[in-house]
Amino acid sequence: MKTIDQHCFKGEKVLIRVDFNVPVNAEMQITDDTRMRAALPTINKVLNDGGSVILMSHRGRPKNGPEDQFSLKYLVVQLGKLLDKKVDFVADCIGCEVKEKAASLSEGSVLLLDNLRFYKEEKAGDLDFAKQLAELADVYVNDAFGTAHRAHASTAVIAQFFPEKKFFGHIMTNEIQNINKVLNTTKKPLTAIMGGAKVSSKITIISQLMDKVDNLIIGGGMTYTFAKAMGGNVGNSLVEDDKLGLALDIIESAKEKDVNLCLPIDSINADSFDNDANTALSKVDCVQDGFMGLDIGEETASQFAEVIKNSATILWNGPMGVFEMENFSKGTKAVADAIVDATSSGAFSLVGGGDSVAAINKYEMADKVSYVSTGGGAMLEYLEGKTLPGIAAIMK
What we know:
The chain is 35% helix and 16% strand. The chain has 396 residues and is α/β, with parallel strands linked by helices. Helix 8 crosses helix 9 (244-256) and helix 10 packs parallel to helix 11 (330-344).
């Protein structure tokens, strides 16, 4: 694997694809700079070697060219504070002004380009757009794992213009190594915890993992598709009626492969999708009429926790309930607690996917698990066994 630790960047201009898709408030102030902080080791490696850095990223989903609310200019001050140095900014990512700025960079300088997605050519994977970006630097580094599953100009197409000088940054390297720890682990038992709303969004990864896992825990909204498939009453709970057969297939596959499939036993239900709704507890297959399941019950949480605590390798993707609402967050919190306990006892734990990461951050446990993946969609596709364009382009 071509990583930046294998190269000295002395005297080189280095074009780094970062993921600075950070949230901002109405005053355009950054509300969470986690992704910017994550990129610092890669940026500082180049600067410490004596190279200069050109940073490129997307942010948001601009529709028709430049939109002020999506400009990366609002990141300059915070990035300067994080790096403890002046950061130059250019209000474009290609063109004469950008070329001049890049050409004039001195050793140890940092230049931030504006939003790549102000050009439709970025998402289209346009070759000429990628070539114009490539002409700015001597070396290309991809450190944006969150976009590695997209064949965009700056994440995949551009690498061909750097046949000998293309590398993975620290984020990309860490993501690949840590996901591979789960996929290729010899530390057993291996437990996968799959939550979230729909079976359909997780079926590929469940199928891929079925030959690897010892325990498969199912929670979240997709619980009720399984419950209904087995003849249960699920009230107004979220159900994919066209996936009932698929749920039964998963149950049968687990039996055939001797996988311990852990399905919820009890359910915390509400008469509306509201934190202040009337609630009731039931068996998962006996949800009251007019109610919907929004969290796992205590009996389920206790059984899941026992399986997790006896695991040596843990993958968590997806919450157990509507954890954003305090009254339906206990199941997700119980799972998070169990993962932390297992990790402290020596287990390797990987947490990935937007909602799982949001939950682990909400409970301030990110530093108590082994690794938190920065790329939801990219992580899932990698686990599914798909080839990620952003990774393949560096490996060629």
